[in-house]
Write a structure and sequence with these properties.
The chain is α+β, with helices and mostly antiparallel strands and about 240 residues long. The strands form three sheets. The chain has a four-stranded mixed β-sheet, sandwiched between helices. Strands 5-6-9-8 form a four-stranded antiparallel β-sheet, with no helix packed on it.
């Protein structure tokens, strides 16, 4: 999820509700398929924007490939380039005259089912684009312990705040390169946290996540400050191979 300022969070929630109601989507299908076997996925507008853009690329190229036809990008690359923070990203692709037919094909494919049913994933995004008489569909899933992530700098202090989303996330965890940090504030009731990190040269590279009920570290997200500078810590790790389209 893209880090946002606090004032944007309520707007994003309203836009997400409108977006779910306004367009055909595989959101309900994916969560119905997961059922009781895996936690429900939450919709991620940023991930859907990435999926929509890539669906248009595939439709224009007449291809179905997890590797970008023009730039050689992979799903994780496309997510990070758009401002995503999760470094576990999966993707499924399909094309057909209607979404129902594409969903049936995905459901019949063990590789595609494996991605949709992945227990570690927490969020989902989707997008489509027309190609001749068909519609090209891209569905992306990601694993993140953090939602409503916000970052801002004040007097050489980087303020990072957010909320733990998944029920298995017991308490926040962060590493700025020198070991685990203690949050400035942590409210187990609201599950909101805040970290204040001194900036020496105006830059930071952070790993974020949580500790689970057993106290084990679960690193799920990676960000840099200023945003878009350098390669996020953890990039390229823990990314399961995508199945054939």
């Amino acid at each position: 999820m893209r880090p946002v300022h606090r004032a944007e969070c309520a707007v994003l929630m309203l836009l997400t509700t409108a977006w779910l109601c306004a367009e055909e989507s595989p959101f309900a299908w994916a969560n119905a398929l997961r059922g009781a076997a895996a936690p429900a996925l939450r919709p991620d507008p940023l991930l859907s924007e990435v999926a929509r853009r890539y669906a248009a690329v595939l439709a224009a190229a007449g291809a179905l490939s997890h590797t970008g036809p023009a730039d050689g990008s992979r799903p994780l690359d496309r997510s990070f380039q758009a401002g995503g923070t999760a470094f576990e990203v999966g993707e499924i692709l399909g094309a057909g005259p209607g979404l129902d037919a594409v969903e049936r094909a995905w459901e019949a494919s063990p590789g595609h089912r494996r991605v949709v049913l992945g227990e570690r994933y927490t969020s989902i995004g989707w997008g489509s684009a027309p190609r001749d008489a068909q519609q090209v569909w891209v569905v992306m899933v990601a694993r993140s312990a953090v939602v409503d992530l916000s970052m801002e700098e004040s007097d050489h202090i980087l303020i990072v705040s957010g909320r733990l989303g998944p029920p298995w996330a017991a308490e926040p965890w962060m590493d700025a390169g020198s070991g685990a940090l203690t949050p400035s504030t942590w409210d187990p009731g609201t599950r909101r946290f805040e970290y204040r990190i001194p900036l020496i040269d105006g830059r930071a590279r952070l790993l974020l996540g949580c500790r689970d009920a057993h106290g084990d570290r679960q690193a799920t997200d990676s960000v840099t400050w200023p945003r878009g500078t350098g390669s996020p810590a953890g990039a390229g790790r823990s990314t399961p191979p995508a199945p054939p389209p």
